[in-house]
Design brief:
Helix 3 (61-71) runs parallel beside helix 5 (94-109), helix 7 (138-154) packs parallel to helix 10 and helix 14 packs parallel to helix 15 (393-411). With 489 residues, the protein is α/β, with parallel strands linked by helices. The strands form four sheets. Strands 5-4-3-2-1-15-14-8-6 form a nine-stranded parallel sheet. A four-stranded mixed sheet has the order 7-9-11-10, covered by helices on one side. A two-stranded antiparallel ribbon has the order 12-13. It is built from 17 helices and 17 strands. The longest helix has 26 residues, at 186-211. The structure holds 6-O-phosphono-beta-D-galactopyranose. 6-O-phosphono-beta-D-galactopyranose binds next to loops.
């Protein structure tokens, strides 16, 4: 098939951007919010800033939404802070609810559809202390109480709900996000934690359908598809195994309500089966999702790793200097290797626009459910130029190429309803503070300034739309018709 013309996006396609409460809000001790585990975890990333102030969205809500409206957004995906809404067990915080009402009302007034994540890495400390994180099953009732509060308070205006952000990545990188805190044997206990999270997800799905008129809800897997290194048959199996262990086992469960045969065998062989109680699987199976929200930035490549290969754990690039990512080897399964056909970001993330088309096709072919992109974007070192502007051509190219491929996936027959890039304003990266900058709108603050500020008044935090802001506004205004296709394909 040849694609000489620009792909067509359907009428009513929702264009927007994405954020998470702890990465953008700040105001951690304001409005009755109590601490979350991510407050503690983000301090471990020093010299990068923690989340105390972040982009100070807490005090810039109206200004930020006005900028979204200026860009022509039709959607905005953000998360709610559990401990802002439920600061202690059984207590609903009116100030927290009022903060999100202000945001949601501003969005609705500007015809921007809110897409709301219930959980994005910020477990309240009171939950952590009482239920050992996600380990004790008491967390299920606590999470359900929180979700029901959100549906009751916001469900009249919020119709798209997302349950748990990147549950797969939280389990795969538990140590990076602090989820392993208190675990004696993370490699075993993580599967119990994962099972409890599945039950929480199921409770959220059922409560949403019960309480929100016209409400739709889906999970948010983080997708990094695996390509096999070669046509060697064992490399094909290695890529399939990698997909099973990093993505597919979660997605199969969300859709079919069952752990698939591959993961059950993997658990059994390694003596790490989770505790599944009577009634658990029936509950999970009864919770039917409406769509997939997908975060997709990059792809991976792998080849078969023989059983006698030496084990090597993955090590993320935490410095922003190319070449610091350590490719893992999992004997008997797969070895990750660099892709010679693509460029990489300064954090060694493969820049592979086609992976977006690949991922859409993969998920559509397996599950036949509508999809939305809730994260895709380009993280870079960035500062204000001598002319006071931010000329982010590399981001524009990245987004153009990725969204074009998303359009091709739609022409391939995939049902995609929305694209939300990561992020709207610059915000705190998960592990690299303000140094790894995403977004269409620059926020004038550095990690050092955030670390040293005694009060908010010392900081500029000025919003400066980047060149990508104007470019994306055109993409929205033309419903994708101004995107440029790759040369020579
Ligand atoms: C996703 C997370 C986001 C965000 C993004 C970029 O996995 O859902 O919260 O952080 O990745 O990652 P990073 O900030 O590490 O560059």
């Amino acid at each position: 098939m040849k694609y000489r013309d620009n792909p067509k996006f359907p009428a009513g396609f929702m264009w927007g951007a994405s954020s998470a409460a702890w990465q953008v809000e700040g105001g951690v001790a304001e409005g009755g919010r109590t601490p979350a585990i991510i407050d503690i975890n983000s301090k471990t990333k020093y010299p990068f800033a923690d989340n105390s102030i972040a982009s100070d969205h807490y005090h810039h809500v109206e200004e930020d939404v006005a900028l979204m409206a200026k860009a022509g957004f039709s959607s905005y995906r953000f998360s709610l802070s559990w401990s802002r809404i439920i600061p202690e067990e059984g207590v609903v915080n009116p100030e927290g609810v009022a903060f999100y009402n202000k945001l949601i009302d501003a969005l609705v007034a500007n015809n921007i559809t809110p897409i709301v994540t219930l959980y994005h890495y910020d477990l309240p400390v009171w939950v952590d202390e009482k239920y050992k994180g996600w380990y004790d099953r008491g967390v299920i009732d606590a999470f359900e109480f929180y979700c029901r509060t959100c549906f009751r308070e916001f469900g009249d205006r919020v119709k798209y709900w997302l349950s748990i952000n990147e549950q797969n990545m939280q389990i795969l990188y538990g140590n990076w996000l602090g989820l392993d805190k208190g675990c004696k044997d993370w490699n075993k206990e993580k599967w119990d934690i994962n099972h409890t999270m599945n039950l929480c997800h199921a409770k959220a799905v059922l409560a949403c359908h019960e309480m929100v008129e016209g409400g739709k809800i889906g999970p948010v897997p983080g997708y990094v598809p695996f390509y096999p290194d070669s046509c060697r048959p064992l490399d094909q199996i290695a890529a399939m195994d990698a997909e099973e262990l990093t993505e597919k086992m979660w997605d199969d469960l969300y859709v079919f309500g069952e752990y698939n045969g591959f993961i059950k065998r993997y658990w059994k062989e390694n003596g790490i089966e989770p505790k599944i109680l009577p009634g658990d699987m029936e509950l999970i199976k009864s919770a039917k999702i409406d769509f997939f929200a997908i975060n997709c930035y990059r792809s991976n490549v792998c080849k078969y790793a023989p059983t006698d290969a030496s084990y090597m754990d993955i090590e993320l690039n935490k410095t922003g200097e190319k070449g610091n990512f350590k490719y893992p080897i999992y004997p008997g399964l797969y070895e990750m290797i660099p892709n010679p056909f693509v460029e990489r970001t300064d954090w060694d993330w493969d820049i592979d626009p086609v992976c977006l088309r690949y991922t859409m096709r993969y998920v559509w072919d397996h599950y036949h459910l509508p999809m939305m992109i809730t994260e895709n974007g380009f993280g870079a070192h960035e500062s204000i130029g001598p002319d006071g502007k931010i000329h982010d051509e590399a981001r524009i190219k990245f987004l153009n190429d990725h969204i074009y491929q998303l359009g091709l996936a739609i022409e391939d027959g995939c049902d995609v309803i929305s694209f939300n890039l990561w992020s709207f304003t610059v915000l705190l990266s998960t592990g690299n503070g303000m140094e790894k900058r995403y977004g269409l709108v620059y926020v004038d603050v550095t990690d050092d300034q955030l670390n040293n500020a005694k009060s908010l008044d010392e900081l500029s935090l000025k919003r400066i739309p980047k060149d990508s802001f104007d470019w994306y506004s055109k993409v929205i205004a033309t419903n994708g018709a101004c995107l440029k296709g790759p040369e020579g394909e």
